[in-house]
Write a structure and sequence with these properties.
heterodimer, A: alpha/beta, Elongation Factor Tu (Ef-tu), domain 3, Rossmann fold, Ubiquitin-like (UB roll), 3 domains, 7-stranded antiparallel β-sheet, 5-stranded parallel β-sheet, 7 helices, 17 strands, globular, B: alpha+beta, 3-stranded antiparallel β-sheet, 13 helices, 10 strands, about 30% helix
Chain lengths: ~325, ~350
């Protein structure tokens, strides 16, 4: 054993993969399937886990998290489905435009921030759009375990309902699809009222939908711990700002289209991270001094921590003002 | 190397012994001449050849006898192994982790042959050759957790992770330092650590929980913990305190070298892949004072650590009454020379005792 405690390592363990298939699912969504170059099995994973995909995009490294949607019991491949975001920072566009079968890529070991509560007597999944992906893995896992589940899946229209046809064909009676263009909506209140004791609800989709489910469940008397959600935040662009990093003894500039975490990495600072989406807490950083205001966008810090001005989550949060000094 | 398994007991006549090989590789837990709590975690991925850190699940000369002792404890008290209904999947995860690790790390002792879900497991030291269906409990003589931990040294706490906490929802606990799975089952991380002094004030548990919830698949971690045990007892449980507690009063200046043991736990932490649970193997190593002081550096250092330990810790660890006897014995093995940093024996470089 070493004498001193070790520094947290940045990111999860990595796996080298080959892109084995690129399958358009519809106009917006494409599925990417990975295999290992040596044909070895992938590590098993728990449904709800994500992997962080490393993209080498014109000299810049992008690291984006995506839910694993393949069957956790099938170690021959990992698969993700990616929605093209034309207004985003470019990760999804890179995958859609640049990545071809046969390409070598690096992804991380699975990390699960959205696990199934295996105590649940029944599991109700509420998906909005591309939020369907973690539920595909959960359904596969719960089917093997013989557990009770149902899925309510809200899509813009039939053409953009990724995997909706597959799911309804394979699990008639367990899957309901709701089409926005036909003014169909998940009857959330009735749905929540009708569940047996011990049911757990899981929601993955746009922020508005997640808030709606938590709020409605609270109003209908659901215990907080029986409602689960996952929302990955993408870092948002913003005004460039300067940061002093004490431990590294350098001052860096965070550009308009990069996150604080990405800027630190670009300057060679080995900062800890895991999900890169404001959820896991791994990149939490102490603020030594500041003059200006924080733009906190994470799901991690408590309100009093934000108010204290002593913490920031550099993966998604930004700063406006002349002085920010971090203990990094 | 081929391991010669001892035929020994951890009760009654206490025939437990450490060979010179086992003494040299003992996981001495003090990296400096004093001790205080810390979140002393490091990655668990190998260590020096022959050390207890080298393999994922260390197998040593005590293996066969320790498993016999576990079977005796379970025969008297089946509640030492428990698994709440939602933890069965984690049990299979653990079975797979141990079978894969041991068959890869000790191919001469263990074999695993997998044909889809049809698995054959060969454990040569214990004379086991079983074929079963992975994930089908009806094909094993016990549940998956009990089956594999009856064949693996160390206690196992299997923790469910949910609601931003860890929950003691399954385990196999027969070689524990005075805690009870039956008492703790279903508790969360803060509940089962409530009796530990000082560490709460130091914020140790909040930081430790945060660290543990972030232990990821493929990146196991480890730390050492320690206490003191009179006689080489594996089962120092609260359930049996009436049997072993009294033995602490039998220590004398004449028998302390043979009877008093430093008890070290190698604690490791693995994220389990299918269940997302965390398994916490707690492997117990015992060494008699008279064997420990054959390593000059360890004799010097243990004396200084025990002498200077805060009273609360000596009380919590259960040896406050015997501390004067210990200090008296150990002081004879401390000549005041400086010690080299780190935990290793450093037999070639550290001078022999100068008195």
């Amino acid at each position: 054993m070493s004498a001193a405690p070790q520094k947290a390592k940045a990111g999860a363990e990595k796996i080298e993969v080959i892109v084995s298939a690129v399958v358009p699912v519809n106009d917006l969504v494409t599925r990417f399937e990975f295999r290992r170059p040596d044909g070895a099995p992938f590590p098993p994973f728990s449904a709800g886990a994500h992997t962080v995909v490393e993209m080498k995009d014109q000299g810049r490294t992008r690291l984006n998290p995506y839910s694993l949607m393949s069957d956790p019991a099938d170690p021959s491949l990992y698969a993700i489905s990616v929605r093209r975001d034309d207004q985003g920072r470019g990760g999804s566009l890179f995958l859609h435009r640049q990545v071809k079968p046969g390409d070598r890529m690096t992804i991380t070991y699975p990390v699960n921030l959205f696990p199934v509560d295996l105590r649940g007597r029944k599991h109700v999944f509420l998906a909005g759009g591309i939020g369907i992906t973690p539920f595909l893995a959960m359904i596969a896992q719960l089917e093997k375990l013989g557990a009770r589940w149902e899925l309510h899946y809200s899509v813009r229209n039939a053409a953009l309902g990724s995997y909706a046809g597959d799911l309804t064909a394979r699990h008639p009676g367990k899957v309901r699809v709701y089409h926005d263009d036909q003014q169909q909506a998940i009857p959330l209140g009735d749905l929540l009222d009708g569940q047996p004791l011990g049911t757990h609800v899981y929601v993955c989709g746009p922020k508005g939908m997640i808030d709606w489910v938590h709020r409605t469940a609270t109003e209908h008397g659901w215990p907080k711990d029986n409602v689960h959600s996952e929302e990955f935040l993408a870092p948002q662009p913003g005004t460039p700002f300067e940061v002093r990093l004490c431990k590294s003894d350098m001052t860096i500039l965070v550009g308009e289209n990069e996150s604080l975490l990405e800027a630190m990495e670009r300057c060679g600072v080995d900062a800890p991270f895991l999900c890169r989406g404001g959820a896991c807490g791994q990149c939490e950083t102490d603020v030594v001094d500041h003059d200006g205001s924080f733009i906190h966008r994470d799901h991690w810090l408590e309100d009093d921590q934000r108010a204290s001005g002593k913490k920031i989550m550099p993966c998604v949060s930004r700063f406006v003002g002349p002085t920010l000094v971090l203990d990094r | 190397m081929t391991i010669q398994f001892n035929d020994e007991t951890f009760r009654g006549d206490y025939s437990f012994r450490n060979s010179p090989w086992a003494i040299k590789r003992f996981p001495f837990p003090f990296h400096e001449d004093s001790y205080m709590y810390s979140v002393n975690m490091e990655q668990h991925r190998g260590g020096p050849a022959g050390s207890v850190f080298e393999k994922r699940f260390d197998v040593d000369e005590h293996y066969v006898s320790e498993m016999r002792d576990r079977a005796l404890v379970l025969a008297e008290d089946p509640l030492r192994c428990q698994s709440l209904p939602h933890m069965t999947l984690a049990g299979w995860d653990l079975l797979e982790l141990i079978m894969v690790s041991k068959s890869e790390d000790y191919p001469d002792l263990f074999e695993l042959h997998r044909d889809g879900d049809r698995w054959r497991w060969v454990n040569k030291p214990l004379g086991i050759d079983d074929t079963f269906t992975f994930m089908d409990e009806t094909t094993l003589p016990y549940g998956p957790l009990e089956y594999i931990t009856r064949q693996t040294q160390g206690d196992f706490a299997v923790l469910d992770q949910r609601d931003d906490n860890l929950w003691m929802d399954a385990g196999m606990v027969t070689t524990q330092a005075d805690w009870s799975l039956d008492f703790d089952i279903g508790m969360n991380f803060f509940e089962w650590h409530a009796p530990v002094p000082l560490a709460h004030e130091l914020g140790i548990f909040k930081r430790a929980l945060k660290f543990l919830m972030n232990v990821q698949q493929g990146a196991p971690a480890r730390r050492l913990n320690w206490t003191m045990t009179v006689n080489p007892l594996l089962d120092t449980s609260p359930e049996n305190y009436h049997k072993w507690g009294i033995q602490k009063t039998e220590l004398t200046a004449e028998n302390i070298g043979a009877k008093q043991h430093l008890r070290v736990e190698l604690q490791t932490f693995y994220r389990l892949p299918r269940s997302n649970a965390l398994v916490f193997p707690i492997r117990c190593y015992l060494i008699a004072f008279q064997d420990l002081v054959t390593v000059p550096k360890w004799g010097r250092r243990l004396h200084r650590v025990i002498r200077d330990l805060p009273e609360e810790l000596a009380t919590y660890k259960g040896f406050i009454a015997n501390r004067p006897l210990m200090i008296d014995y150990l002081s004879r093995h401390d000549d005041g020379l400086p010690t080299s940093p780190g935990v290793w024996a450093d037999l070639e470089t550290e001078p022999p005792l100068q008195k």
